[in-house]
Amino acid sequence: MLMGEKVDLVAAERSYVPMYTKWINDPEVTHWLKADPPFSVEMEQDWVEGVRQEGKMTFTILTKEGKPIGNMGVEEISWKARRASIGIMIGEKDYWSKGYGSDAITTLLRYLFEELGMRRVQLFTDLDNIRAQKAYKKCGFREEGVMRQFRNKDGRPVDEMFMAILADEWFEKHPRQG
Ligand SMILES: CC(C)(COP(=O)(O)OP(=O)(O)OC[C@H]1O[C@@H](n2cnc3c(N)ncnc32)[C@H](O)[C@@H]1OP(=O)(O)O)[C@@H](O)C(=O)NCCC(=O)NCCS
């Protein structure tokens, strides 16, 4: 378990699949995601198992009271380049804009930089996803560029913001102890 200030991150697991299915089929949530619903319970079960087999990392975000509120993933890990991509979804909408997302991201970054020795962590998000970009910037991500007309949303092309944080930038804000 990775422990943050407002949340803990635990490995994704089958017992949470009904919750995952609810989140990933909620149009207000998926509006911001690259995933295209509908997703069945079976697909979500396969996702939990498949993710483990492929060596990607998935985490469920729990409040300190133990309530699951969302998922995070790490993928495209390059051990040679010490680089990884991350994604996040808070599926419980009542928990948006209350600092849970930025605490979850900070907690994951601490693990990736301080435990796994990553040099670069990257992501991309819809250009109009201001809340996500604000959360990422709070955690130290910087804008690197815009990928034009990257995907379709509601039948229209959408631009994506590419962002990343480097280990040097992380350790500048979070000096190593001892
Ligand atoms: C994106 C997401 C992970 C962010 O987590 P969160 O807990 O909501 O974000 P935080 O509260 O940590 O930070 C969001 C910040 O944006 C601000 N914000 C929210 N809506 C905003 C808006 N429309 N315009 C400007 N700022 C906004 C919040 O006030 C907060 O800033 P503050 O801490 O300075 O007040 C979460 O909202 C989510 O999962 N959304 C749906 C799915 C999604 O967008 N996933 C990311 C795909 S790349």
Salient structural properties:
single chain, Aminopeptidase, 8 strands, binds coenzyme A
Q: Secondary structure elements and their pairing?
A:
Elements: E1 2-3, E2 7-11, H1 17-24, H2 27-30, H3 41-53, E3 57-63, E4 68-78, E5 83-90, H4 100-115, E6 120-126, H5 130-138, E7 142-153, E8 156-166, H6 167-173
Parallel strand pairs: 5-6
Antiparallel strand pairs: 1-2, 2-3, 3-4, 4-5, 6-8, 7-8
Bound molecules: coenzyme A (COA).
Coenzyme A binds at residues 29, 32-33, 70, 88-90, 96-102, 125, 129-132, 134-135.
| Mean pLDDT metric | 95
CATH architecture field = 3-Layer(aba) Sandwich
Which range best describes the helical content: under 10%, 10-25%, 25-40%, 40-55%, 55-70% or over 70%?
25-40%
The number of helical segments is 6
General form: globular
End-to-end gap: 23 Å
Strand-residue proportion: 35-45%
Q: Give the H and E element order.
A: EEHHHEEEHEHEEH
Query: Quick one: CATH class?
Result: Alpha Beta
Report the bound ligands by name, code or SMILES.
Answer: coenzyme A
Number of domains: 1
